[in-house]
Structure prediction request, 404 residues.
Amino acid sequence: MTVGPTLEAQKSEFEEVQRDIIFEPNPGPQTSFLAATEQEVLYGGAAGGGKSYSLIADPVRYFSNPHSRMLIVRRSTEELRELISVSKQLYPRAIPGIKFMERDKTWVAPNGSTLWMSYLDRDDDVMRYQGQAFNWIGFDELTQWPTPYAWNYMRSRLRSSSKELGLYMRATTNPGGPGHAWVKATFIDPAPEGRPFVATDLESGEPLLYPENHEKAGEPLFYRRFIPATLRDNPYLFDEGTYETNLLSLPEMQRRQLLEGDWTIAEGAAFSEFRQSTHVTEPFEIPNDWRRFRSCDYGYSSFSAVHWFAIDPSYETLYCYRELYVSKHTGRDLAKAVMEQEVGENIQYGILDSSCWHNRGQIGPSIAEEMISAGCRWRPSDRTAGARVAGKNRLHELLKIDEE
Prediction:
């Protein structure tokens, strides 16, 4: 007769397994990041949220597939040192027999799967990866890249001969840095944090869809997601307290970026008091009797920015409830885009940069006249120095918190 293990033996075996756990993600954002299924995911926000360790841990699952080819990049080889150090703490314990090739900065598993740890400084450096194929690509500190060129190019390197491997790009970063604006436009602005969304074109803001002549016509090309994390999400660092103290001692802008993970503030911001947590509300239906108007800063090669506003008559609170950013639009094109947004609305007036009434020596109607003739009516802004200063001060007043 076969006798099974006693309860004590089972308990001892379970405790032994528990002691062999090499890495367990913190509940919350770190777990969400490692479980994310979207093709492109940005993880981070505040400093100390466990971003770099998460980026090192995420590829571990793919080392079991011999066809897996992975890549982690930083702006420079010097910045790779910390990541390599963390990987040396994790990988040999998680993957028995794995070896690190110091010269090539590459991890090679016994089954042949690899992870290349490299740099990508200038845009030309992407040519180092031409002809390469990766099923997983990670960018550490994404805002250190001043333009999206490298990120977009490396997407073309995503492919695999194994159907069992998905194709993923992962990134970590804090707010700020030379690439703050494009990273924010790519991952932060299109959707509320934590929610998957259809990837959008950076210039037009339109969703990226399969073209009409494709068998998947109209379907999303892929999805993105931003997963925020703060110091509080890393109990090992937060409970110790010293790191939080150091972040609290920073100047306001750096403190808001690194401690609070605030993406709304940037170097040189005209309205540095703006805070997502204070000045943004959940969407609600605007009453029909509220006064509505719009404003526009026109650009052709650069972006045209149109904003729609409503005023709560009870408290004189100003709500910006819609925005439109487009480039390469003539006056008539922009007028059409604006009016498409306003169907069924009563927009009382619009304010347009007064320079749009100038012909600048060219023959033909001005930009403003083109828009008005198309049915999109505007009045010119007051660009005198006194009016501009008064207007800016008025916005500062509106952004102030009335404690009463």
